[in-house]
Amino acid sequence: MVLKYRVSLPGIKGFARVYEASESSTLYAFHKQMRADMDFPQDQMVLFKAMDGDGKVSARYGIFDLGAGTIDSVTLGQTWKKGEVSFLYFYDTVNAKSVIVTCEGEVEPRPGVVYPVLVEAKGPNPIEFENGYVAFEDLPDEKKKSPESDDDWDDDDDADDVRDDDTEEIYDENENDGD
After folding, report:
1. Which stretches are tagged as biased composition: Acidic residues (predicted)?
2. Per-domain boundaries in the chain
3. pLDDT digits (tens, 9 = 90+) for 99-126
4. Among residues 32, 116, 98, 28, which one has the least CA distance to residue 69?
5. For the CA atoms of the chain, what is the radius of gyration?
6. Are the C-beta atoms of residues 104 and 5 closer than 8 Å to each other?
7. How does pLDDT run across 129-157, given as a tens digit for each residue?
8. Would strands 12-22 and 57-62 be described as parallel, antiparallel, or unpaired?
């Protein structure tokens, strides 16, 4: 069985990552793949806070056993069978930085693919949003401009039409008389 997971940031439409992972993939293998794909810091403790279909926390998985197992011993298939359909994945527990990981169900296995694998990416990595990046779809409607409706995009033609009335050429009538 192969499961499909969507990674998102709360309230941000301009970011998404979609992964496919085999049911035998551990949370640790999934963590390593996400860390590599999204440039998460390597020196941080991580935590998977598992939630059921109602959004209630059902388990916490970390490097150390927090009561439900460690991330290197718990598989995605085990969490799926327990009804854990989403995770809050803390990639930086010290600063409480996280992404939402939601299982979208089973997909057909693809021959020759090593799981987990990134199958879709939208927008820059999460750190860019922390640094002030705003995706087009996250802009307020009044800030969005369509290139077709914006007259300012055609600056090349406008330069020829404008007369420069502020400058005046001055000619010296006696310039060539002294030869």
Report:
1. 149-179
2. 2-138
3. 999 999 999 999 999 999 999 999 889 8
4. 28
5. 28
6. yes
7. 776 666 667 666 676 666 665 555 555 55
8. unpaired
